[in-house]
Amino acid sequence: MEKIKKFRFSLNGIVLTAAFLGIVLIGTVVNENFLTMKNILSIFQQMSEMGIMALGLTIVIITGGNDLASGTTMGLCAVVSGLCLTSGMPIPLALLISLAAAVACGCLNASLVALIGIPPMIATLGTQMFFYGAALVLSKGNSISNIPREFYFLGQDKLAGLPLQAVILILLTIVLAVILKKKVFGKHLFAIGNNIKASAYSGIRTVKVLFLAYITCSVLCCIAGNIQVSRVATARADMGYSFLMPCISAVVLGGTSIDGGIGGVGGTVVGVLIFAMISNIMNLAGISSFWQQLATGSILVLVVVFNKITENSKLHLKKMAGKKAASE
Amino acid sequence: MKKLLERRETSVFLILVALCIGLTIYSPTFLSYTNIKNVLVSNTAMGIMAAGMTFVLITAGIDVSVASQMMFSATWLALLAETPLGNPVTIVLAALLIGLVTGAVNGALISKFDIHPIIITLGTNSIYRGIILVFTNGRWLMNLPKWFTGFSSTVFGIPLPVVYALLIFLISAYILKHTYFGRSIYAMGGNREAARYAGVNLKKTVFLTYTYTGVLCGAAGLVLDSILGNCQPSGSNGWEMNVIAAAVIGGTNILGGYGTIGGTVIGVLMMGVIENGLVVAHVPTYWQKLVYGLIIIVTVTIDVLRKKKADSRKQMIEID
Amino acid sequence: MSEHVFLEMSDVSMTFPGVKALDQVRLDIREGEVHALMGENGAGKSTLIKIISGVQQPDPGARILMDGEEVQFPNVHASIKHGINAIHQDLSLFPNLTVAENIYLGRSKNGKVDWKECDRIAVEALKRLEVQMDIHELLGNLSVAKQQLVAIARAISLSSRLLIMDEPTAALSFSEVRMLYEIIRKLKKENIAILFISHKLDEVFEVSDRVTVLKDGKYVGCKDIGELNESTLVQMMVGRSVTYEALNQESYAAEKVLEVRNISKEGNFKDISFTLHKGEILAFTGLVGAGRSETVKALFGLNPPDQGEILIHGQKAELKNVTQAMKHKIAFIPEDRHHEGLILNMSMEDNITLSILNQMLGKSRFISSRKRAGISGEYVNTLNIRPGQIYKMAKNFSGGNQQKIAVAKWLVTKPDILIIDEPTHGVDIASKTEIHKLLKSLAKQGMAIIMVSSEWQEVFALSDRVIVMRHGRIVHEDSTRDGDQNLMMEKAILGEVKA
Which helix (H) or strand (E) holds A109? Predict the structure, then answer.
């Protein structure tokens, strides 16, 4: 009985593991520094911001939605936090206000999707532009520097030898993985992603769950934004703008279905790690970063197309089997 | 007459006129030849892409790779112009061909696999941009030949890019209104299943729609190069959102089924005039994004609510 | 009408994953005849007309003869070329296009649209129907009845030999129905054959020449209308081959569990009042579109009424959403298992425990796999769900077992009131009997059950009382033990009892 359940995840697991090992192998062959502790830690540091945002996207994509505004939510929260910090506010208060901005972003997205019923991609495409505009207006189109040194801890300190942001990523991953597997909220996310109508008919408060999902995503974007502000000691409206694509790619590469209902955060983190390793190897080998853009786009298209093909062939087989069974 | 007043284009057009009058009163230079020419010419590339976007949105699809497709074309054209093969004829052919290829790739992927067009075009967006950046290493391609910039010269006081754009608008409007393909686009956007029942080949229509949009993006690349006189492969980032905003402001329903080239042209002009007006009024241009984002959110909300209302009315039963 | 059969279909089968929608069906159409296609829900009528009109492809082996020559309808164009076009139930029109274009769409010369031709065809088609309409109005602005006329105009402009209509009168008022009959008679004179699906006996007897009846995807028979009367036709449709064990011999308690007083909702139902007792099975029956599902959904908070009140155990209850309904211990098993009842891509265990996840928490406040497996296993056994693999996805079970999963999903909430919409729709005979026995035993244990069913035998075999609905109202209420079956059927179908 257990076998059937496990098999479903294994196909994607095999592909993901193979990709992961393949890239580690390539990295090791191409550059002897790849597997050094120092380099691994730097990969962790590089992937954390994107990883945290991708975790949030995973949650939303599992519900059958998407948050194309996640990148600009990150920028907006970064700007809000930057403004608060430079105005001399205490750090906790600044973070709190930044989080409040994130919650507002999430609420707007969720209202459009869950209350009004706009297709998520369209709704968040609109808010993407709106949040970006808001961030530009707040920052007057400038980048905010003079971030107080006391704030640098978030993106530059280490905890037990690990970069602090990597620790945050690991903790968030564990928490979300547990929520998805073991909490009612997690089960409801999957149910909604599979069939929102049947979920509502089963007594799930779909609006509430969707609000929580979009708010979670925005809050995670906010955390990623603040880490980046701390790491580079500036805040800009376009921070995170370029994260959207690789994050979605990482989520689907990690085995979460772009149509919702299937997936998990573990795969997403591995997906982000793969992207981080690719860019790391390219940096080590001195290959232009432009290749990364090409690679992320290609991987996204290849993965969604591959998933569709396998899904369709399964469906076809099933139909054939159905015909056979019915004719007997 | 009554129908004309009911259309969203009409109200947008009236707002545009009011805006122009207001700007003229605020600053009479707004109506000067130079300023008008400037507003028109600087929006031609966007207008051409917006015409393609209108097609895509009517089918209930979306294409967020248009800016990349345009730069893909612009970059290869700039490179081609430097080679001995570069002459006005090959450049025009190449522009259309390159656009055809990028558009056809989008069209093939979207029509073959049942995947949301945003996802596919987000992917190809990175791919097209990545290819040209890798190839040029991000280098600006400066000093395009004279014959190339000649594409955007002014003849009898009329800037040629505006003529190209007008020509493309006319062709696009003709296709939408008077061809089977054009009507199929409206049909599938209005009721996809019914379109299938009426014998519309959905896959073919989708493929052709994205391909046509690609061709227009290719043409936009040519126009952009000739206006600027150089090509920045990493440029025009984020233009796709402005293009979508222009179509939506012009009355195209982002959920499909409704839109006109005329409306889109008004939308493009509106955005051009707003941008120009902000400069004239010394308002920082970054307010634009906020306003456009808000416009998209509000119009889509109205469209969705209206559709919901119509659907619920349809489900009612008759009670004696 | 001539005796010449121009369209002959045989061995038409159609398989969807796990379901045989049509099984060796045949059908023949004579020139200029009006042919009614009848059968209960799920009999395969809509599927059959989708095959004739080229929308769906039958399984290999089907034979279609047109004037004695073998033909195929691989797409809609092929059917149109043979002079066949269909109006589907949802009308398949375009709200964003004008009336004229809705009629014209699909035709073109060399890929171009001739707008003059478009207007001409539209005007001509509407003229044949003798209706006045602004052909440049957007279709979305018209009433449903007018849209229906546009759909008919479109179809007759495309069909030179056979016009197919799927429940054409469903959305029409009385006078519009008269008009449609006139149109049908006129087309008949033009030697155009008409095939129509209908649930209304009176209409079949009024206009049709012959009737073909399907049941559960199988061909039952084809008769001239002269050979039939209402009761013989009903018998063909419901088929006497299946009789259910009569289970309604027990009596129920006098305790009122649910009292509904004059609830109404615009466009859904009007002035609905009834009482449900402990241990009773109350059936709601009537035709599709009579407002039965809308009414029971109101009791589950899915379709809150505008007026009236609902009392549960004598207390006024507010039922504005599912959560409130569940608090009042009401459970609802919808008709559409695939889209509303179950989540097909999740396991049986996930489905069974979905509504009670809050009770599945262990000491650590995490969902306990052991509890989930335990309760799922328990219901697998009590309901005899086969195969009993709780981790298997719901979509991989047969229709009968899927329905049992849907029932289990709500039994785990230990409801006082169980509402079940078409309990045995698309379920094989053996499972049907099992589900019937299960419902009865639940009632015996004191559960109050509301059952919506279109199947008369089921209603009479299972329920204690029956409520007949028509056009959103209750038209009849009776005990099933001493009630007159035929009287009720006639009320449901005709709305009045013929003397």
Answer: helix A91-110
Are the Cβ atoms of B294 and A130 closer than 8 angstroms?
Answer: yes
| Digit-coded pLDDT (tens) for C323-380 | 999 999 999 999 888 889 999 999 999 999 999 999 999 888 899 999 999 999 999 9
Degrees, nearest 5: CA angle C89-C92-C94 = 145
Count of H helices and E strands in chain A? 13, 2
Provide DSSP, A140-207. TTS-B----GGGGHHHH-EETTEEHHHHHHHHHHHHHHHHHHHSHHHHHHHHHHH-HHHHHHTT--HH
Using an 8 Å CB-CB cutoff, list chain B residues near C473.
319-320
Each residue's pLDDT tens digit, B189-206: 999 888 988 888 899 999
C279 lies within 8 A of chain A by CB? no
- List the chains bordering chain A where 3 or more Cβ pairs fall under 8 Å: B, C
At C227, phi and psi to the nearest 5? -80, -5
- The CATH code that applies to domain B27-305 is 1.10.3470
As a whole number of angstroms, the distance between CA A277 and CA A324 comes to 47
A170 touches chain C (CB under 8 A): no
Domains of chain C: 5-238 (3.40.50.300), 256-494 (3.40.50.300)
Burial C395-408 (b: 16+ CB within 10 A, else e): ebbbbbbbbbbbbb
Interface contact B118-A68, CB threshold 8 A: yes
Question: Tokens at residue C131, please?
Answer: 């209706």
Distance of CA A65 to the CA centre of its chain: 13
> Best residue in B7, B171, B183 to probe C by mutation, most C CBs within 10 Å?
B183
Domain ranges of chain B: 27-305
pTM of the predicted structure, to 2 decimals:
0.89
* Cis before C387 (ω within 30): yes
**Residue spans per domain, chain A:** 37-240
| pLDDT tens, chain A, 328 aa long | 344 444 445 577 788 888 889 989 988 888 888 888 889 998 998 899 999 999 999 999 999 999 999 999 999 999 999 999 999 899 999 999 999 999 999 999 999 999 999 999 899 999 999 999 999 999 998 999 989 988 988 888 888 888 899 999 999 999 999 999 999 999 999 999 999 999 999 999 999 999 999 999 999 999 999 999 999 999 999 998 889 988 999 999 898 988 899 999 999 999 999 999 988 888 888 888 888 888 888 988 998 888 888 877 776 666 665 555 444 4
Distance from CA of B166 to the nearest CA of A (A): 28
Side chain identity at residue C364, one-letter code: S
Torsion angle, alpha carbons of C246, C251, C255, C256, to 10: 30
Q: Cβ–Cβ of B244/A137 closer than 8 Å?
A: no
* Cα–Cα dist A307/A297, whole Å: 16
Distance of alpha carbon C40 from alpha carbon B175, whole angstroms: 46
* Interface contact A116, partner C, CB < 8 A: no
* Bridge partner residues of C172 (DSSP): none
Maximum mean pLDDT: which of B163-177, B240-254, C155-169: B163-177
Q: Which residue of C has its CA nearest to B194?
A: C92
List pLDDT tens digits, range B23-60: 888 888 888 888 889 899 999 999 999 999 999 999 99
Distance CA C199, CA C213 (A): 11
Establish if C387 touches chain A: CB-CB under 8 angstroms: no
Q: Is-contact A85 A96, C-beta < 8 A?
A: no
Residue C201 C-alpha from the chain's centroid: 16
- Interface check for C20 against chain A (CB to CB < 8 A): the answer is yes
Interface predicted TM-score of the whole assembly (ipTM), two decimals? 0.86
Q: What is each CA distance from C139 to A110, C149, C159, in whole angstroms?
A: 33, 11, 21
Which residues on adjacent β-strands are paired with residue C419?
Answer: C332, C450
